[in-house]
Hints:
The structure holds two protein chains of two kinds. Chain A is of the alpha+beta class. Helix content of chain A is 34%, strand content 23%. Chain A is elongated. In chain A, a hairpin with a 4-residue loop joins strand 7 (181-188) and strand 8 (193-198). Chain A has a five-stranded antiparallel beta sheet with strand order 8-7-6-5-9, covered by helices on one side. A four-stranded antiparallel beta sheet of chain A has the order 11-12-10-13. Chain B is α+β, with helices and mostly antiparallel strands. Helices cover 33% and strands 27% of the residues of chain B. Chain B has a five-stranded antiparallel beta sheet, with helices on one face. In chain B, helix 4 (88-102) packs antiparallel against helix 5 and helix 8 (274-284) packs across helix 9 (302-315). At the A-B interface, helix 1, helix 5, helix 6, strand 4 and helix 7 of A face helix 1, helix 2, helix 3, helix 4 and helix 5 of B. Strand 6 (166-178) of chain A pairs parallel with strand 3 (132-135) of chain B, so a sheet runs across the interface.
Amino acid sequence: MASTAKLERLLNLTAALLETVRPLTADEIGGRIYGYPEDKTAFRRAFERDKDALREMGIPLVLSEVPGSDPPQQGYRIPKDQYYLRDPGLDPDELAALQLAASAVRLEGVEGTAGLWKLGGVPAASSGDAPAPTSTLTAIPVDERMVKLFAAVADRSPVTFAYRGEQRTVDPYRLDFSRGRWYVTGYDHARSDERIFRLDRVDGDVEAGAARSFEPPEVAIPGARAEPWQLGEGEPVRAQVLIAPAQAEIAVGIVGSAAVTEERPDGSIVVELPVTNPDGFRALVLGFLDHAEVLGPIELRDDLVEWLRAIASSVEPSPDAEAGSEPGSERGPRP
Amino acid sequence: MSQIPAADRLRRLLSLLPWVASHRGPTVEEVCDRFGLEPDELLSDVALVSMVGVPPYSPGDLFEVVVEEGRVWVHLSPSFDRALRLTPEEALALVAAGASLLAVPGADPGGPLARGLAKLAATLGIDPDDAFDIDLGHASAGVLATIQQATDEHRRLRLAYYTHGRDQHTEREVDPYRVHAEQGRWYLVGFDHLRDDVRLFRVDRILSAEALDASFQPPDELPSPELFEAGIDDPRVVLDLAPEAAWVVESYAVDEVETRADGRLRVTLPVSGRPWLERVLLQLGPRATVVRTRSDPALAHCGEEAAARLLARYESP
Lengths: 335, 317
């Protein structure tokens, strides 16, 4: 019963604050809105809890000065333009498709059902054309910081966070999820340049600044690169690798079909890769064993030869500066 | 009485009311289906809203929600005639779910999902093409579609599969149980008739897939095989790893790990095939040393031998 009484009071409060033409003071709320206890202390306690409950739901409760009050008094209201959904005008099949997506993809850490309700609920016959997946297709990890970054991209608010022991302020342009990780790409104020940040390397919380503080670039920026051979800084070196026919298809799966620059009559292919991390590049090539050969440039070919010579003769060469990345980290099954 | 917390009921009501108001008397059943509640919960919420309004709560200020002949009607509820804005969390959940499903190879870029996502993203101020991208991993659209359909229909598959650990191409028949993406890769869990056991396959190593006529009954409880279940009979290798190669412990099925006095890790790993060990040793280079091998002495020098073999290719004129 307590739940019902509280629900009734919350509905009354929301309706009154939405419809009021001027902010209502706490006293007015206690005196006018149905469902509050008469006792002042009990009212205060109930009202504080209700404010928290509404704010938690995303209802914008705004405190401002009551016009014409003397001495000035603060009052509450819910601005309609901040409260109401901008209706995306989804057609039934579009809503059904989004519903299907929400059931196929599990977001670890956030709840999407309430969002679907706001868009019109889950249509009963949400079959559509696509067959319902038998189980979750994938799970995507999301935390509070990711929610803030998403809001910041939408609102164009700069964000501040600690990254590799340094405080960064960034205009976030885009978010990418790749290889199981989130990346944020944006304009780094201190470096006056675009940078990519790995969310799991952000230390602690993300703070968002004022909305509409920047304009995203006119020309779309590319997303985060998560390939092991691209996890370095500096100008990329373009490397050509010859892949034998037996592995050509698998290689395309790893590097993407856009990287293929030549298809030879025997079925072998040449792929070209922008390399910023020689360690990761070497691991990629060696993963193909006898099926791959570095054609150029000469410095990457020499680097590989030197590496192989060291192993062949079991004389320890000096490890690379980039040690610590995870070349060819192979989480794959081997049935 | 309802045990659902008031805030959760409020959340649902504030979405339900506008929807009912904009539809001409939907049935109780339809409303319940859409918003996931039982008819008695709906009736008690409706009774409650009929007591709600704006001060001073004269009869004309109260909302009117009635159920007549199994249909729900809402009148006089201007405050709640539109749904509440999405919270950033709800918006992210929907956009990420939609973008994920669109990232499945073979998804229709002009289909209802793409259109719905674009509309939703536009109201949020997010450009779904330039500001948000989800990559679940590479897979051939044809292969993925075939194995997904066979999984749904419980039909056996014939797969051409590349076994990475043995550097071999095999043909095998598999009863597909589940398809999923994880850490940027697509996987298939299924019963492998070649090995007579449940196995996990990487979809990007399935070169072709064909659904057969044979059907099967999937198990009630889906097994979740480890990425690699080492055979008891597989040979073992004992490696000393430099600290920067510690990722090996996370990435492979390791029998034992021991930290040495010099900071190096001594790990015992099952070897699924010689090519697998060759890759590991070639990639680790000076960061790994073979201490010994068990049950297959030929593996002891496989790193040096593989390096020499590859070198021959680079050093031949």
